[in-house]
Structure formats: structure tokens, C-alpha cells
Amino acid sequence: MQVKILGSAAGGGFPQWNCACSNCARLRAGNFHGHARSQAQVAVRATGRPWCLVNASPDLRTQILSDPQFQPERAPRDSPIAAVVLTSADVDQVIGLLHLREFQPLRISATSAIQQILREENSVFRALEQTQRQAEWETIRPGVRHDLKSPDGASLGLTIEPVSLGGILPGYAGKSGGSDDAVVGLFIEANQRRFFFAPSLPRIEERWLDEWDRCEAILIDGTFWSDDELVRTRGEGKTAREMGHIPISGAGGTLEALAKLKRTRRIFYHINNTNSILDEDSAEHLHVTAAGWEIARDGMEIQL
Ligand SMILES: [Zn+2]
């Protein structure tokens, strides 16, 4: 199985256009030891099969154009990208679907809650369904294994198992509560290899830990270093936990909660521009890497 990290930042990317936090300001000024990042985006495929995108970032067009493996070759409208799986209806996970609207046959897998927001409440996504040979939607359910297919029904050799991560709907959906399939994590499996994917991790259940440690890798929420990071930067707003992200540090943070994991390759993904782990000279960066974690970067490839 081949996993490509095309983008690794949280919403806004790094630097973020309207942000003058210490990281963004120093990156612009050229005195930051670290890397710019586009918004979180992963592509995965079983060996020798077409690609499946995991979510669809606002930076997707540029991310596709920048990689020779995603270019059409044999005919017009012949992308090697055959499918998309969505883990939430968050703007930063779905807006890239609109980049894929060019009459491209695609199979899009998402839970009922996510499909309701995109297909029933936001008419702009009907741009994906202007002809019959465009998007084909498939419903996935937490706890139920699902084989991914290309639009013509051929197997992609990839199996997913969604895990319910709670009911926080995106702010634009205009509802406070949702069903338990509003946000999911995914076990993704191919060629007898398995990894776990969750760009947003609002909670951790003890029983998941053994399962994660049996995976070849986990690619999980590294959005914020501390719970009050955005409040301190902006002077207002929500805590990390209120936004559905367990912070990396502190009591109950991901570093502490996942300290038991020994075998699996652990990668922080979906990193906000305010997060001090982006600064490779920072104590926080050194702390995370010394604890055995990797920090996702654009262009990183994982062969599992
Ligand atoms: Zn910033």
C-alpha cells in the first residue's frame, strides 16, 4: 500500500493568508526553521491500483498538478484518481471536491450525515452530479467494513472501516448536534497492511489503543500543541477540545494518552499554523520527535 501526504496543515495552511502569529510571521520573513505546508490531503492506493483520495482539501488542484503520478495519460478525462472517501463535512475536508467537478467519474464514499450536508443542504456540490457519469455516492457506516471501488465497479483493493468519532458538525452546517457519523476515523487496509487515519480526534477510547498498535502506522490529529493555543493567539475563540481536537500536550493530550503505543509508526498530521512543533528549533518539536513521533510534511510518502 502506498500512502502519499500531499498536504499536512490544518485549515488555512501554513502560512495562513491572514495570520501574523509567530510561526506565520517568521516563515514569511525567512527566519523560520521549518517548512510551509498546504492543507491536509492524503492519497492512498493498493499496489498497482488506481488512487483513492482521503478527503478533498481546498489546495487539491495544486496538490494533484504537482505530482506526476496523478496526471491523466491515456485519454482525456483519464485521471488515475478513481475514488474519494470523506471523514467529515468540514470545509477543509470537502471543498476540494469542487476541483474534481470536470465531468470526472468518481466514486465518493461518505456517511449519511456527511452526505446530507453536502448533497441536500449545499446545492453547489450538485456540480458533481450534472451528468450520470460523474459522482457516484456510497454510504459508509461506523463499524462496518467497506471495500472501495472505482466508478466502473472494479475493486481498488482497499478496505476501510470507519470509526465513529462523535457528532460535531461543521459550524457552517448551522446545527449544534449531529448523529454519531458526523466525524469518523478510518482504518484503511490493503495488501495485508493497515493504517489508522483521523485528522480530527475529539476523543480516544482505551480499547482503540491495542488496535492502533497493531497497525503499520497511525496518521492522527496534530492540530494543536495546547488546548488554549488559538485563544492565546487570537485573544478569543474556542479551545482545541471545543473544536474537536485533543491537543498534543498536557494531561490527557495525545502524547500522554498514546504513550503506550510501541510498535506502530506514529505520525502527527493536520497541523495548525500556530502549533510550535512546526518550528524545528523549538522545544516542542524536539519533545515530540524524542517521544518517537513523526511530523507529517507535504510530499511525504509512506510505503506500508
Ligand atoms: Zn499563523
Overview of this protein structure:
The protein has 304 residues and is α/β, with parallel strands linked by helices. 17% of the residues lie in helices and 24% in strands. It contains eight helices and 14 strands. The strands form two sheets. The protein has a seven-stranded mixed sheet with strand order 6-5-4-3-2-1-14. Helix 8 links the parallel strand 12 (265-269) and strand 13 (294-295). It is globular. The relative contact order is 0.16. Zinc ion (ZN) binds next to helix 1.
* Mean pLDDT metric: 95
In helices, the fraction of residues equals: 10-25%
Largest sheet: 7 strands, mixed
Give the total of beta strands: 14
User: Which ligands, by name, code or SMILES, are bound?
Assistant: zinc ion
Q: Which strands sit side by side, in order, in the main sheet?
A: 6-5-4-3-2-1-14
Task: Report low-confidence residues grouped into runs of 5 or more.
Answer: none
Report the total helices: 8
Question: Which strand-content bin applies to the residues?
Answer: 15-25%
What is the H/E order? EHEEHEHEHEEEEEHEHHEHEE
Shape assignment: globular
Quickly give the structural class. alpha/beta
Using only C-alpha atoms, the radius of gyration works out to 18 Å
**N- to C-terminal separation?**
5 Å
Q: What's this entry about, in short?
A:
With 304 residues, this protein is α/β, with parallel strands linked by helices. It has helices spanning 22-29, 60-65, 91-94, 112-120, 206-213, 229-234, 254-257, 283-290; strands at residues 2-7, 41-45, 51-54, 81-85, 106-110, 135-139, 146-149, 155-164, 184-190, 193-198, 217-221, 265-269, 294-295, 300-303.
